[in-house]
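Follow-up to my earlier ticket, as requested here are the two runs.
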Amino acid sequence: MNTKKIAIYAMLTALTVGVSLVILIPIPGTNGFVTLCEVGIYTAAALFGPMGGLIVGAGSGLFIDLLSGYPQWAIFSLLIHGLQGLVAGYFAGKGSVRWGFGLSLGTIIMVAGYFFASWLLYDWPVGVASLPSNLVQNIVGIMVAIPLTKALMRLPLQQSTVKNK
């Protein structure tokens, strides 16, 4: 990995963390919120493949929880979002059907991962309660990431960096 890619991954991670901590969509009934973390993860995965998705996913998941005051979730988020980005990045650039499959698989990894983490940390009803909000978070993330990624792919400056998987 060269210095340019490391800097880009660090900037995407920081941007994902910043957006996720500033833009919070409240979830009635659970006192939780939906973040835009998936936007950064899926965009990095589309632009930079599995390694970009892994690094941005793992880093942003870890830092969001630590900075939000939820250290008990930090390792879970590192693993879940890292795997989510890795899988989504693997299918990126292989056609829209395969990319859709990668996004769907990333969604399943995230929703199932947080279900099991909630079950482990608290109890199974908490895991069940987390399912709808995590699903909504992924759907919102996909809806924002797809047009954002398409717009970024059209930028001529990106061509030297993007798709160097």
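Run two:
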Amino acid sequence: MNDERLPQLRASDADRERVAEILRDALAEGRLDMAEFDERLDATYQARTYGELERVTVDLPVAAQAPASAPAPLSLRKEPAPAGEVASWAERIRPDATGATSGIAILGGFERKGRWTIGRRFNAFCLMGGAEIDLREAEFAAPEVEISVWTLMGGVNVIVPPGVEVESRGMGIMGGFDTREDGTPGDPGAPRVIVSGVALMGGVGVERKLPKAERLRLKAERKEERRRLRAERRERRELD
């Protein structure tokens, strides 16, 4: 793969944890103060790509145990997955399932969220109403699914988790059809979501969010990590 494309590759949880460990070492060595550490740690857990992670550590040595070493950026090479490791996406793509195929909102709304299965093609129709199609915990009836939207004076919001590739093929007429997530590479083995259709005097939005459980887990981890680091700094001051 061309090195110029590497910064655009999607970062994994393991990549983010590796950067977080570099930041912890830098804080312990006095290279970062607590405010800088908090700011960079937040940026690390919000990072989507290798390029964003590289910016967090570009002025820090990767090996905290070698303070004399020259600063080095984070390696952009993905290590091979451990043998026998099962990708979570493989469990969520269910070719044997039919899945939900439609949703209608007329002067009202509908939502699909939580644990559900989306069919190969999902048709959403909204007339002066709104809809939310949340795929963060969904299973997929195929490696590629299409959400076909027709909305008149209404809106549809599609939420995808990190790792899912999105392609928008819709058109907005006196309205909008969101294409901000187009071009973001997906994780290997992850499903691909095509959002097509027409928004007439309405809007179709696509946003990427972590699942709620994952957001809460990361928030709790960051809180505990800050508590532990503050305790360590207090102990060092007392010893000094």
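The only thing I checked on run two: The longest helix spans residues 212-239. Let me know what else you need.
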